[in-house]
Amino acid sequence: MVLCMVLSWIFIHRWSQRNKKGPKTWPLVGAAIEQFTNYDRMHDWLVKYLSESNSVVVPMPFTTYTYIADPANVEHVLKTNFANYPKGEVYRSYMEVLLGDGIFNVDGELWRKQRKTASFEFASKNLRDFSTVVFRDYSLKLHSILSRASFQGQQVDMQELLMRMTLDSICKVGFGVEIGTLAPNLPDNHFAKAFDTANIIVTLRFIDPLWRIKRYLNVGSEALLDKSIKTIDDFTYSVIRRRKAEIKETQQSSENNKMKHDLLSRFIELGKDSESDLTDKSLRDVVLNFVIAGRDTTATTLSWAIYMVMTHPHVAEKLYSELKTFEEDQAREEKVSLLPYDTENLELFNRRVAQFAGLLSYDSLGKLYYLHAVITETLRLYPAVPQDPKGILEDDVLPDGTKVKAGGMVTYVPYSMGRMEYNWGPDAASFKPERWLKEGFFQNASPFKFTAFQAGPRICLGKDSAYLQMKMALAILCRFYTFTLVPGHPVQYRMMTILSMAHGLKLTIARR
Ligand code: HEM
Predict the structure, then answer these.
(1) Which parts of the sequence bind heme (predicted)?
(2) Chain-wide mean pLDDT for the chain?
(3) Domains present along the chain, CATH in parentheses
(4) Mean pLDDT across the stretch 486-502?
(5) Cα(453) to centroid(ligand 1), Å
(6) Gap between the Cα atoms of 419 and 426, Å rounded
């Protein structure tokens, strides 16, 4: 009898959903089963539902997730009613151990203050000039490794090399420290390892309901997390102490021209001028948040961009031709005579690459519109942050009429947004850098439609810096190399907060 009632209840529940868009739900567990069984391909699972409807409501056992892909809804959440959609306590409690009170992990006044200081820093010419030199140096280090691999006919995992490149450069820009993971022998580094481990484990918390128990008992992944955080903190605090001592020394000897331009030094300096001297803990949080924000996002985008270029030969040729023309024009403008080279002669080849890199500056890179379009088109289809959830403080109604409830989550989904015909037209799924160009010049789209960098008051602060590094690296790589995927190597995303490639990007390389 009871069984009969339960079955009828389930039947009525499912029948009432026969015309419902979005995943069908079960009593009590909502859509958890369907979401769980599609977990590894969740971004594409959402593409299917969001192409049928602007918003998809996914009831879960104790909460409801609402996914949105329509620019009007996105603008409402990220800008118009910004105050109602904070990061929220759930995110904060998961990430606190790594991000502390850094900009990524706070809302309200604490966020506003950091945003103001950091925006000021990011607009500084000193930081931009320093970053340009760092990005050029590390792109050249990457080239040395590729050049050697190409002469020896070795395969490389490009994603791994790019992760090393972006970690080394963000540590140099952030802390002023050379950590050297891109040295020719590709060494292990305690900080880099601990940083990777901590990043993976805090991300796992979002799908591991037992993490709080493991943390309480200090076992398994949570014990490893504790150890990794200690390594990260030891390293960071020792750099902070060293920088503070150096700054004091420089000021006493009044050698102001020796002032460092890394972010940490700048924040130590700024802290001294304001009423509240920044504590070592706040400095640690500030700088680590930038390292986390800038490292995987940039390396992942570069990996997908290289994959897109090599799987679209007409794009590779168009890009090559833009870079060759740029090289000749820029050399003429700077009155540099280009060195002759031969791809079979390592020394001559390396000298020409270094000469080309010398022509790349913040201003000259601004002339490479097609390169800019290739990167932007990559981010449209493979956004480094594929979905970005927000908390909901009070019940609200989105512009398309979807109701959201306090305590739930609303997530804008850049991965789906880039693939929606209602956003980009019938060729939405095709990789076409040309869609960003008008009469040869790059044209931006609304940040509420192209959401790879988020939009509104919390839009990414490192966007220009990221483009600078990506353009620097890709200009050198696509001018002097062609890439071929190792036969049979699977290219697919890993399901985590950043859209990295699950198996890396295994390539062979040829010089050109
Ligand atoms: C391709 C590269 C990048 C992409 C796609 C990207 C994307 C994003 C996205 C989606 C957010 C919003 C995340 C959230 O909800 O909090 C964000 C925030 C942020 N990004 Fe980036 N980012 C990139 C590179 C960088 C770099 C290189 C830096 C700095 C070195 C940086 C610094 C930041 C900061 C500080 C925030 C927090 C802003 C705030 O909350 O006010 N990003 N970025």
Answers:
(1) 460
(2) 92
(3) 85-383+452-511 (1.10.630.10)
(4) 92
(5) 6
(6) 10
171 marked as part of a ligand binding site:
no
Q: Is 293 in the pocket of ligand 1 (CB under 6 A)?
A: yes
Please give the structure tokens belonging to residue 383.
């956004």
Pocket-testing residue among 262, 297, 300, ligand 1, by greatest number of atoms within 8 A of Cβ = 297
- Cut 0.90: pTM above it: yes
Q: Extract the tokens encoding 18.
A: 């026969």
Residue whose pair of structure tokens reads 């030199």 in the numeric block: 133
Average pLDDT over residues 289-314: 95
Residue 476 has a pLDDT of 98
Instruction: Look at residue 267 in the predicted model and tell me its pLDDT.
Output: 86
Ligand 1 pocket member 462 (CB < 6 A): yes
In single-letter form, the type of residue at position 444 comes to N
Residue 494 CA: distances (Å) to CA of 316, 384, 491, 500: 26, 11, 10, 6
How many A from CA of 170 to the centre of ligand 1? Answer: 13
Question: Would you say the CB of residue 378 lies under 6 angstroms from ligand 1?
Answer: no
- Please name the amino acid found at residue 47: V
Residue 237 burial (CB < 10 Å; 0-12/13-18/19+)? middle
Residues whose CB falls within 8 Å of the CB of residue 240, separated by 6 or more in sequence, listed in order: 264, 268, 280, 283, 284
Structure tokens given for 457: 């008051």
Decide whether any atom of ligand 1 lies within 6 Å of the 143 Cβ: no
Contact 326, 368 (CB under 8 A): yes
